[in-house]
Specification:
Blueprint: E1 7-13, E2 18-24, E3 29-37, E4 45-49, E5 58-61, H1 67-80, E6 90-97, E7 108-109, H2 112-120, H3 129-142, E8 148-152, H4 162-165, H5 171-176, H6 186-200, E9 208-214, E10 218-224, E11 227-231, H7 253-260, H8 266-275, H9 278-283, H10 288-296, H11 300-324, E12 329-333, H12 334-339, H13 341-348, H14 360-364, E13 371-372, E14 381-384, H15 389-401
Parallel strand pairs: 1-6, 6-8, 9-12, 12-14
Antiparallel strand pairs: 1-2, 2-3, 3-4, 4-5, 7-8, 9-10, 10-11, 13-14
Helix pairs in contact: 1-3, 10-11, 11-13
This protein binds adenosine monophosphate.
Amino acid sequence: MTSHASRVLVLNSGSSSVKYQLLDMTDGTRLALGLVERIGEETSRLSHTPLASGGAKREHEGPIADHEAALKAVATELAADGLGLDSPELAAIGHRVVHGGLKFTVPTVIDDAVLAEIERLVPVAPLHNPANITGIRTAQALRPDLPQVAVFDTAFHTTMPECAARYAIDVATADAHRIRRYGFHGTSHAYVSRQTAALLGKDPAETNVIVLHLGNGASASAVAGGRCMDTSMGLTPLEGLVMGTRSGDIDPAVTFHLKRVAGMSADEIDVLLNKKSGLLGLCGDNDMREIRRRIEEGDERAQLAFDIYIHRLKKYIGAYTAVLGHVDAVVFTAGVGENAAPVREAAVAGLEELGLAVDAGLNAVRSDAPRLISPEYARVAVAVVPTDEELEIAQQTYALVNA
Ligand code: AMP
């Protein structure tokens, strides 16, 4: 590789979308970013922001048939900014891959065997891995000479001890079907826990953190010395916290009940729990901004949805305090965690016995910077640390191809 190849393209391929960022890894600068949505429909949309040139966001609407066409459109946009995919300055493409099973514990350069293994995991990640595979194949076709790296959402959680990773079900059945707790949002939990140690001025290897990643999807993790000890998502991203549209933890017998008594099929129950539950199911809105607005107007359904969301969050803070034994910081991240001061305040309220408190003035400050929101006297720091999954994927990709 030539020494000036310092750019990494990060691709996050969903079933009908591709999110991308081009970064310069000499200093982590973002050169361009964008999103292709509604791939395969008549009304596909591409929005591209050429950050390097400071140019305005460009948007195009019109049919984009498949992922190959989407990536070609992205390549055209990048080329228009002098940042084409054929540039010798491009060092690698880093792909977000949702499920890496137990095999992929670290970022991995993709070859045929790696791709086959990601494909073997499709039964445990039917919604995500097929789209990731399509993204990888498409990128390989565009630049067959370039290292393509898979960065797995599950990798950070592979350090979980068996007692946290296993469900208490028949072992032979679990193993035959690879049923265990894998966890997701791993790049975010890794990045945010490390950044939190830096914020505290501590060595990550000696810092214990509870990370609360609260976006539309939400997960908590207990991280001891940089290693994940437990996380709230399980076999799939459905387990754990109350989310925008997902139920999080429920008694599994609810599903049998829905099948036997309500006559719902497995697919209908899947849709109910993943797409029509959580905050949306409880109050008709999944955006925390709208829920807060309704609460301000005295809406009781919105208030109850908020209370259920907070109750679950508190249970996880308590549980992970017990898992870790000693906690240096509780940290909030992602769309809700970074922006919703009332969520942070309510989640920590009443937890003084656990050493937790929030300073109302600090909590009210809006900022993009990592920051502490606990008062000086608090035994455990409470922090807000913006997540940056793309930067983490780019850094891991770049480190691997330069190793
Ligand atoms: P993410 O999945 O991390 O992009 O987070 C998306 C979610 O963040 C949205 O669904 C909103 O509920 C939430 N969010 C974004 N901005 C705010 C805000 N200012 N206040 C409350 N919630 C917010």
